[in-house]
Amino acid sequence: MAVTEAPFHAALTALREDREETPTNMREAFKADPQRFAKFSLTDGDLLFDWSKCAVTTTTMHLLEKLALVAKLPERREAMFSGQKINITEDRAVLHTALRAGPDAKVMVDGKDVMPEVRAVLAAMGAFSDAIRSGTATGATGKRITDVVNIGIGGSDLGPVMATLALAPYHDGPRSHFVSNIDGAHIHDTLKDLSPETTLFIVASKTFTTVETMTNAETARKWVEQALGREAVGKHFAAVSTALDKVAAFGIAPDRVFGFWDWVGGRYSLWSAIGLPIMIAVGPQHFAEFLAGAHEMDQHFASAPLLKNIPVVMGLVGYYHRVVCGYPARAVIPYDQRLARLPAYLQQLDMESNGKQVTLGGQKAATPTGPLVWGEPGTNGQHAFFQLLHQGTDIIPVEFLAAAEGHEPELKHHHDLLLANCLAQSEALMKGRTLEEARRQMLTKGMPLEEVDRIAPHRVFPGNRPSITILYRLLDPRTLGRVIALYEHRVFVEGTLYNINSFDQWGVELGKELATALLPVVEGTEDAARSDASTAGLVRHIHQLRGE
Length: 548
Ligand code: F6P
Description:
The protein is of the alpha/beta class and 548 residues long. Helices cover 46% and strands 10% of the residues. It has a six-stranded mixed sheet, sandwiched between helices. A five-stranded parallel sheet has the order 6-5-7-8-9, sandwiched between helices. It has a two-stranded antiparallel sheet with strand order 3-4.
């Protein structure tokens, strides 16, 4: 039975519409139930997950739990952890959890334990990182490597970019740079201040065919060759890929190639050798803590009862907002400047996973699926788009993330202000401000009555806008691992409820195919006649602008 056909689904919708049952005024809900925060928050170690500002009741949560059971969430979770091929359109297991499994773990794929290989690659990454960090592995002229440039895109870029910035306080290795875009400006601007003698490139691509990555890698290879000669290339390149034959053809020596496996999805790959730039930046020990944090969250996800399970509850609430409430988007707002790339990372994780329109059985999905995910760090977002979150006509649930402590004890005052703002925003979204309160505030300030009448409606905040808050002590490697694994599992839970395959990404293919076909047209070696009139007109205009 599909989740949407389950009787609980109708009950959930009815419950939401039942004004007696479901709080429409969250201020009143908190007043009426002093236990509301305790009922709708969970902890795992020092990590607190609070969804009490969402308009749910105990009954809502129990109905959602029943939906999860109808969707066979526990069975699907077990299928994922045990290496079953749940990515049915690519006939692949989904085992990013194996990459951070404990030292005694055994994980079978096609009758073979994959853990010895996982550990061997991790050890090789550690040895290589140590050699680069200590200076025992140098560039071709004997100089120490001072800059590491990761060339990759999508999952081969966003995770390392996000995590390297997040872990800046632990960064004691060479400087890190990331080139992803096919736009020549990206590699040009990155290389302009670097020296070929002291730069190491990591070419990161699961398939080793992605046009952006291969084009940038070739440009980088030429840059090294021109400065230091062809024989220098080996000392300045390493690669991360599942396609070892293609890496060899590019000319990177086998001892500098770090493999991974088809059961690691690109957007789930930062725990694999794709994390090499993170490891070189922060060191193997911190990388191990990052993996250990993710493993802790895996264990929690695998074993905690459904309504005590943070990723499960986060997924259930996400599903409720998307399907039952019909909210089209969610905003992720880390009150942490070093999580500035978290929203971009989560966009790929969530939208490439759950932006699907057919079910596992190939039928058109009966409910909306993954929401639009976006965000920026607070407090910056407050001075940009929070206006819409507070007073716009769409309701967009917000996810706040914050650490109780910063890494700069001497700037504690900054951190206190940061936290006060984070808490204030979720409170403001929830409480809002009534017309009466707006009027009273203006009258107290001595504003003339006529002015009060005119301005007051503009100063009303509807309130009752849902948000969740994720709090932890410090954004250290272990905590970052826990938070990222939490989001991965939440995406899994929602995908299970939508009954879709969260692990393929056919939706990126069509554009890639058309770009390949259009290249000769843009270059002017083929006629645009086969394109539609708009595309042909745009190409003509490009040629005119270039005088071609
Ligand atoms: O275009 C989408 C995608 O396939 C992502 O899923 C992937 O993370 C990215 O491209 C990069 O792919 P690769 O690591 O094979 O270069």
